[in-house]
Design brief:
The chain is mainly α. It contains one helix and no strands.
């Protein structure tokens, strides 16, 4: 169960960084 939480946090962080990168490139 703990592994699932860690994976979710990791994916969320990756998604957040990806969104920020795309937004930065857009500008």
């Amino acid at each position: 169960m703990k592994k699932t939480k860690i994976l979710l946090l990791l994916s969320l962080t990756l998604l957040g960084t990806s969104c920020s990168k795309f937004q930065g490139e857009d500008e």
